[in-house]
Amino acid sequence: MTARDTDVVISSRARLARNLAEFAFPGRQDPVSAGKVADRVREALFAGSDHMARAFRRMAIADLPPLDRSALVERRLISRDLAQDGPGREVLVSRDEHLSIMVNEEDHVRIQAITPGFSVDEAFDLALRTVRYLEENLAFAYHERFGYLTACPTNVGTGLRVSVMVHLPGHVLGGAIEPLVDSLRKLRFAVRGMYGEHSEAGGALYQVSNQATLGLSEDEIRTELRRVAASVVERERTLRRELHRVQPLALEDRVGRSLGILRNARLLTAEEALQRLSDLRLGVALGLCPDLDAGTVDDLVNRIGPASLQKARNRDLPPQERDAVRAEEIRTRLASGGAAPPMTPTAPTPADPTPPGPGTPPDPGPSAP
Amino acid sequence: MQRGGGIPMICDQCHKRDATIHVTQAVNGETQEMNLCAGCAMRLGFVSAGGDLSALPFLEGLSFPAGLFKVSLGSPVKGGTAVGERCIHCGLTFDEFRSGGRMGCGRCYAAFAHRLLPLMKRIQSGDRHTGLRPTGATARVMEQDAAREAREAREAAARESRPEAPPTVKSRPRVRPGPPAGPPQAGSADAAPESAGPAEPGVPELREELRKAVDREDYESAARLRDRIRALSEPADTPGEKDREEKKGGQAP
Ligand SMILES: [Zn+2]
Ligand SMILES: [Zn+2]
Q1: pLDDT for B223
Q2: Nearest by CB to B124, which of A21, A160, A214?
């Protein structure tokens, strides 16, 4: 239907978990070891290559003020867990933010690649190239029977978690989320709400990911995920069409109201904004908002989190002021009635299909053993 | 595995193959249990130790009831093992894992392997890694480990190449002291005097071949070799009892 199925799939993600063979896992290592682990990972990434040093930005979590940490969490560059204080915690983020390497979270190394739209293989390739690059110089904990060893047995083996972030308003409005969660659980896939579980308030954003990491190869895992996600995409489209066919007025009214509120409101909570933007995204997919595109909506979703808003203003904002700033941000971007929406010149929208910038894909070539 | 039926275990010794043999070991009045694969059971001498063990299950799937074998073991149980359900590398106990849900270090997996396998069956799609093989530094370290293991196995085989030797087996007795780490010398064993010539391989060579067969999991050849070794070094009466009694004092820590 659309390139990379962006009408339903917002982004794809691959995560590989690894631990250094020499050290106890982060939950059981002393601060000195944690520091050594961070040093090793940094050396393995940067050694002998200015190119990599230019391609990545390193941030020690301890050096980051709370607001910066939250903003990284909102942009999904680090986990909520890593944002907490802990010895040796770092994140190495590629300049284009497609790739992040978390150090000393639950595992020593967690490599995460996020690519726009339905692009699981692209994300996986990026994560795998990075882990192979590191493995040239880092000996990871590995066991013949159990594969790559992780702190939690739910990640052992491949250490691979692949996921797609999907927009499922058709499932939500059609009451089909619960059955979806149940049926995917039986296939050992998880469906989790991105912002709150199974509620409209969450912006109908869900993450579908594999549960099993052992007993399947990496190829089997991502092939399965692709297959499962493709069927979710198809079902979502069917549900949307069906909703529109059965209740065209109700649906168009809903989209129109949300658009009106987003363009005119002076105070918007994050919750309401997410839900209204979800309606808008649905309207875009059904061709009800000809002057908007999904990328603009996704970009807005990324910008209206509390931390991102405050980070953009460069100061702490009390909650009510936040709502005002959020409404203003949305109003500005959706302004100008029928005209084309102002495109953001700075950050690439998640739907932007431009390839990763130079240097993002680590090139194992120059690393001499 | 003999209890409950069908719960697979990993060999406590190599942590690679399925354990098919359960060994109960009495050390200073304390009972220690070991689950071994057929290969490691042979390597550690359970197979050739005594006539009553000749029926050991060579092929996987068979097992013996716990407590059938009361054998003292000369060589210590090596790395990645749990003593009293505790990882000897990071100190994590299995109970701590159960309450916290996290392993302490990579070696915990080998240490608790037999407890983890049923868990994996439940929470994962299998209990065996079928994904990508290690590369780079990981692969290099694994090769080094494998080489060290092979060397240790060779040394263990060399130590055991004289089952009918007197109690103080630790230092190589009689013929020549020699470097302890050296490969088994042809002709140094009683069964293959120099005059016999190369036509008929001696016990040490056969043991070396046996070790190789076990390493490549060729248990059929291993069984044949074992029988030949036994035929060559068959003592008049069963040495098992004697060995057990005599080795009791010198157990491993
Ligand atoms: Zn074994
Ligand atoms: Zn441990």
Answers
A1: 63
A2: A214
